[in-house]
Specification:
172 residues; alpha+beta; Arc Repressor Mutant, subunit A; Beta Polymerase, domain 2; 2 domains; four-stranded mixed sheet; three-stranded antiparallel sheet; 7 strands; 25% strand; WH-like_DNA-bd_sf
């Protein structure tokens, strides 16, 4: 994410954009975010207010707490989401999987990255037929070098947790 950090100098803002724009389902509140980012509530509040005032985030309420999530109606939502996903290497990962693994039906991001947390370990479920399992470990190392993050693949696995669908053949 070095290129994004050079564009946006506030690390807290980069973390918030990642949290909310990787997956539009992600929602959180101030104290939860401060704890997750290991930042002061004041620093997180300042950035939440800036992003909300600019219309990038929507606010709501749950159990007497103000919650935040991406404003998917904002005209810059898709471009920002694309920048965040590219900076995380998700676009490169999808392209490599589709071109090298065989008949891929679906690619689903799970774990920390699906929740918008840049932990350095990307977990992906790949569903399809006639997948080239032998090539997967080599491809995994290649992707890791390219995007500077660890990648774990699960093949044809049922995933019970909420995931973010990165590719679905039926939507083409």
């Amino acid at each position: 994410m070095n290129s994004l950090n050079s564009l946006i100098t506030s690390k807290t803002r980069v973390r918030l954009l990642t949290k909310f724009f990787v997956n539009p389902k992600n929602e959180s509140y101030l104290r939860e975010l401060a704890k997750e980012f290991n930042e002061s509530t004041n620093a997180v509040r300042r950035e939440l207010n800036n992003l909300s005032d600019a219309g990038y985030l929507k606010t709501g309420s749950s159990q007497n707490k103000v919650t935040y999530r991406a404003n998917t109606d904002h005209p810059l939502y898709r471009p920002i989401q694309n920048i965040i996903r590219k900076s995380l290497g998700l676009e490169s990962l999808v392209q490599m999987v589709l071109t090298r693994l065989g008949e891929v039906d679906r690619i689903v991001l799970i774990g920390d990255y699906a929740r918008g947390y840049d932990s350095g370990n990307i977990e992906v479920v790949i569903i399809g037929n006639y997948l080239n399992d032998r090539f997967m470990s080599r491809m995994s190392r290649s992707i890791e070098e390219k995007i500077d993050r660890k990648v774990s693949f699960l093949v044809n696995t049922d995933y019970s947790q909420d995931g973010l669908v990165l590719y679905d053949k039926s939507n083409e």
